[in-house]
Amino acid sequence: MITYFCVLLCWQALPLQGLEILDPEEVEYIRSHAKATVGGSVTLDCGSTMPNIFIWGFTKAGSANNVAVAYNYGQGPKLQSQFSSMGHVRVADNTSALVVEGLQRDAEGTYTCQALYDGDEGARITFYFTRLEVEDD
């Protein structure tokens, strides 16, 4: 998964100017759990500060297939269109948080936000894993 992330990150980082990516010494992993009801909404966080680059992925419960949901590499957030069966998916304004409204059962699974922060001490990469349970009303 790290190799996939690096290939995707390097490909997407090409349009960014002035972003110097130094080799991070450590990758941080943060896990959380969320519950929501069918028809409701949920906001999934990708850190407390806006990363320079983020990529949201989704793995359906019982599957090993992780697919891209949304990403931002300096041009504003972009959404993949194939997720209409989950509900209305969007990235909250001026954040990296993923919002799913009108939740459907298909939204249940694990969401991964891969966040790259570029600071004075070099790049820092954090993976935010959120396991979402969608319950009946």
Automatic annotation (TrEMBL):
Residues in Ig-like domain copies: 24-130
Signal peptide (UniProt feature, chain positions): 1-18
Signal found in the keyword field: yes
Domain of life of the organism encoding this protein: Eukaryota
InterPro entries: Ig-like_dom, Ig-like_dom_sf, Ig-like_fold, Ig_sub, Ig_V-set
Pfam families to which the protein is assigned, alphabetical: V-set
UniProt xrefs under SMART domains: IG
Key words of the record: Signal
Name the record gives this protein: Ig-like domain-containing protein
Biological source species: Channa striata (Snakehead murrel)
